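For consistency, the fold was encoded as tokens, as this record shows:
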Amino acid sequence: MTPQPARSISALKLVSIYLATLIGALILVAVLVVALDIFFQIEFRNTAMGFVVIFVAGSATGQFWYSREKERPASGRMWKIAFLCAVLTIALHLLFLWGTYSLAAMNGAGLFPGLRDSDVPLFASILAGLSVLVFLGLRAAIGIGVRQSVKQEEIRARKASKAGKA
């Protein structure tokens, strides 16, 4: 089997892979949480699960990236993709947040009940901090995904060379 030549992959395709993986993982986790609650009466109150899902999607994106290009991406390009994915992630989560509170507002609770004007800077600071955390976590996840693929490739190459010697 001859190795395929490396193909450069666009930023749009990488971000699309990330988005598809993120949404799939979010749906899977939601189904698992609901199933555990219904069938085993196990309640999940783990706020870190959102970061785990983001990390898994970033790692899968890094693995896909290496599998297509067959070489380590440049560091600057990984930072760019991590930034784009982080912006998309934050936008998606803000959309979910807005949708949730909009549904509550339809029931007469107000759009953001209990949120005072003096709370807006605090909310913005928390959002900024979480955005930085998501960005750095995604960069790490993409790098780990690429490294995992590199190691897998090295293991396959060693096995192939051993099989060729035998």
